[in-house]
Each structure stands twice: as structure tokens, then as C-alpha cells.
Amino acid sequence: MKKLIITSLGIICFAAMALAQPPVAKPAPPAPPEKPQMSKEKRMEMKAKEEANMNEAFKAAELSEDEMTKAREIMTESNKKMRELRSNEKMTEEEKSTAKKEISDDKTEKLKALMGAEKYKLYSETRKKQKAAMEEKKAAE
What we know:
Elements: H1 2-19, H2 40-60, H3 65-87, H4 93-115, H5 117-140
Helix pairs in contact: 2-5, 3-4, 4-5
């Protein structure tokens, strides 16, 4: 009887020690690569270039100063909505995509109403050329 109790106690102790081992930790997935942070000077340079491109597109469309001011207000409003949308964590990616399209369509509609079809077409073509030139420049780097 003594041998049975000692053997049982030994088995129980052995089992308890085996179960007390810490679980093997899985390695953490690698962190997503961070976007390289732009220097303040580089951001200012890019902002100035974007403003120059915008002015060039406005001049190509032959907009008046008043029309340029109103167009900038429309774009600023649209950009603000886009920033708010990007920071909204409650929406799914699909909902965000739909909302982005609505914001973009609304901006386009307002700009067309402000500029008129012909001026908007000139403006749009100039912006497309500028974006294509930027893409080529990025690809060359």
C-alpha cells in the first residue's frame, strides 16, 4: 500500500511539473514597415510644387481670381473630409472606399459647376499631365 501511494504521488508530482512548463511562445509577426518620414523642408518643397502646379492648371483653364479662390475652397473642403475619413477607424475599408468616391464625385461636380464644362476639361487635362510627369520623375529616382 505504501508503495502504491508513493508511486501515485510520484506520478502526480511528475505530471504537475510537466504541466507547469511555460508554453512555447510563437514568434511575433514582423512589424509592418514604417513609412519613411519626410523632413519638414521636403514637405514644404512638395507643398510649394503642388501649389505651383495648381496655379498652372488654373491658368491653363483661364480662371479668374474669384474662380481660383472658390476652387481652392472646394478642394480644401474635400481634403478635410478625406482626412477625417482616413482617421475614422469605425468604418470598414469598403465603406471608406465608397465614401472616398462620393467625396471625389462631389468635388468634381462642384468644380464643373464653378468652372463650366470647357474650363474644367482644360483644368483636368493639365492636372493629368502634371501627375503623369510626377510619376515619371518618381520612377526615374
